[in-house]
């Protein structure tokens, strides 16, 4: 016997279409999810790649910062060494000056002038002593002004007093003596040569 389909053909067609629609919807959802996953994976991959590049750049920046610090430290050390070398060079050049200064002090001292104290602070010189008269102090000032290693004599104090102090006779004891304090400046032959150049 022949099978007879009692269902209307339109109902079967509708079911077939609903079935196909459901399959297509599921396929679209699955496809959408696959595409979203692929896009997410691609974007995440790019983000990870960029993050790794940023991290690499930060590591290189940190290395460069350390090198910059090292360069600064080297520059500071270089400047300090140059200052030390300049100071040592200045000391080497000034070495014979002290002997010349003492030799010149002996030459500029006129008869009748006696030093009781001599101080040097840098280039500043201070003479303290006694003279038989104030004219001998002026002779000393003229001699200092004419000296090769000293200049700019300035009289700070002159006091006249008796020849005998505290019961002791003054050297070459004659009448009244003048106590003096005289400032001058040491002249460096090296500085004069540099100024001439």
What does this structure look like?
This protein is α+β, with helices and mostly antiparallel strands and 197 residues long. It folds into 2 domains: 8-105; 109-165 and 173-196, Gyrase A, domain 2 (2-Layer Sandwich), CATH 3.30.1360. It has 3 helices and 4 strands. The protein has helices at residues 9-108, 134-146, 189-196; strands spanning 113-121, 124-131, 150-162, 176-186. The protein has a 4-stranded antiparallel beta sheet with strand order 1-2-4-3, covered by helices on one side. A hairpin with a 2-residue loop joins strand 1 (113-121) and strand 2. The termini are far apart. Mean pLDDT is 83; it is low at 163-170.
Brief summary:
The chain is α+β, with helices and mostly antiparallel strands and 197 residues long. The protein has three helices and four strands, in the order αββαββα. The longest helix has 100 residues, at 9-108.
Main features:
197 residues, alpha+beta
Layout of helices and strands:
Elements lengths: L8 H100 L4 E9 L2 E8 L2 H13 L3 E13 L13 E11 L2 H8 L1
Antiparallel strand pairs: 1-2, 2-4, 3-4
The number of domains: 2
Shape: rod-shaped
Major sheet: arrangement of strands: 1-2-4-3
Overall pLDDT, averaged? 83
Number of strands: 4
Total of helices: 3
Q: How large is the radius of gyration?
A: 52 Å
Largest sheet geometry: 4 strands, antiparallel
Could you state the order of secondary-structure elements as H and E?
A: HEEHEEH
N- and C-termini, Cα separation: 135 Å
**pLDDT < 50 runs, ≥5 residues:** 163-170
**Structural category:** alpha+beta
What is the percentage of strand-forming residues? 15-25%
Helix share, percent: 55-70%
């Amino acid at each position: 016997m022949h099978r007879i389909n009692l269902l209307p053909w339109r109902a079967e067609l509708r079911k077939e279409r609903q079935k196909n629609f459901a399959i297509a919807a599921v396929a679209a959802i699955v496809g959408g999810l696959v595409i979203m996953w692929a896009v997410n994976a691609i974007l995440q991959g790019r983000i990870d790649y960029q993050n790794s590049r940023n991290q690499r750049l930060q590591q290189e920046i940190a290395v460069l910062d350390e090198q910059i610090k090292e360069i600064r430290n080297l520059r500071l050390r270089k400047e300090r060494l140059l200052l030390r070398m300049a100071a040592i060079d200045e000391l080497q050049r000034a070495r014979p000056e002290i002997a010349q200064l003492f030799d010149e002090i002996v030459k500029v001292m006129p008869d009748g002038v006696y030093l009781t104290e001599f101080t040097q602070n840098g280039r500043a010189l201070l003479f303290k002593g006694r003279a038989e008269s104030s004219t001998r102090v002026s002779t000393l000032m003229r001699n200092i002004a004419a000296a090769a290693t000293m200049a700019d004599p300035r009289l700070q104090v002159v006091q006249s007093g008796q020849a005998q102090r505290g019961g002791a006779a003054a050297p070459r004891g004659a009448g009244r003596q003048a106590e003096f304090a005289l400032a001058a400046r040491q002249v460096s032959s090296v500085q004069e040569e540099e100024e001439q150049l």
